[in-house]
Amino acid sequence: MAYSEWQLNRLRDALRAYHAYTPTEELGPFNWKDVSEAISLATDVTVPPERLRQFVEGNRTKDGTGRKFQSMQPQSLEAIAKFVAEEQLLSPGELEEHVPPWQAAQRLLEYLDQSFDRQRVLPPAMFEGTYQARRTDERGFAVQELTLQRPSDQGLMQVTKTEEYYPAKAEGAFDGWTFEERRKQRRTRTLYGGWAIFSPEDNVMAFLKQADTGRNLYQFTLAADKFYEPGASVEQLILLHHDYPVELERLESGEAEVMRAILQEAAKNVLFFKRIR
């Protein structure tokens, strides 16, 4: 089975949680040799400790701005997936993926081509990676993770998004929770899958569907940092979530009042995503 980047991140989180487990105060937390031996005992597949560490923690890039994660052989990934499932660190559903067909995205890219552009030039900054946005609303404290895959030469990217809700009081405690504590506190988890494109104007346009209901989710770029710095990783991606149009209650309202109402509603759908991987 081939794993996409967001699934690999889930496996990394699960192994990170196991690695942090402390059987006794005297022994301290598990080291990577302990994790390697546990995987071997559960699956008969040996994954060297240092390779595990580099897969989970990664190594700093030369410029110090990011991390490069070690790849894994398919047999090792299957062993890791089996191990974290047996240890109940992840349920099978938490590794499911929803990948809609690509034809519509490809046709949209072709439609948006402009005759005066000799060739399609993608933004030089690196967009692929995982971003996180947080906000509190009437349902509670929401944590959204958006993963963009490496774009094709035409500017087409596979996208996955997860949205998890916690009690409103979690906003101040979330960063201090372990992986297991987050799972216990989580109220709901929703998975979206789809694709995104770079428009000729370098806008990121994401079109996703909720995995279990097929509900649409649209998100478009409002701003991004380091947009034109060659080789730099985009650290912030600010998106506008489009839903139903704003309903105008009074047709006789003045233009200024209508604009205030629209901007107020639109502000609720502005999401500040910050890179986490």
Core attributes:
277 residues; alpha+beta; 10 strands
Helix content: 25-40%
Rg, alpha carbons = 21 Å
Instruction: Provide the structure class.
Output: alpha+beta
Total count of helical runs of at least 4 residues: 7
Taken from the alpha-carbon principal axes, the silhouette is globular
Mean pLDDT: 84
Quaternary state of the chains = single chain
- SS strand fraction: 25-35%
What string gives the helices and strands in order?
Answer: HHHEEHHEEEHEEEEHE
Low-confidence stretches are none
| CA distance, first residue to last residue | 23 Å
Described by strand count, sense and barrel closure, the largest sheet is: 8 strands, antiparallel, barrel
- Order of strands, main sheet, comes to 3-4-5-6-7-8-9-10
Number of strands: 10
Description:
With 277 residues, the chain is α+β, with helices and mostly antiparallel strands. Helices cover 28% and strands 26% of the residues. It is built from seven helices and ten strands. The protein is globular, with a radius of gyration of 21 Å.
Provide a compact summary of the structure:
The protein is of the alpha+beta class and 277 residues long. Helix content is 28%, strand content 26%.
List the helices and strands and how they pair.
Elements: H1 5-19, H2 32-43, H3 49-56, E1 59-60, E2 67-68, H4 74-86, H5 103-112, E3 129-137, E4 140-148, E5 156-166, H6 179-185, E6 188-198, E7 204-210, E8 216-224, E9 236-242, H7 255-267, E10 270-275
Antiparallel strand pairs: 1-2, 3-4, 3-10, 4-5, 5-6, 6-7, 7-8, 8-9, 9-10
Helix pairs in contact: 2-3, 2-4
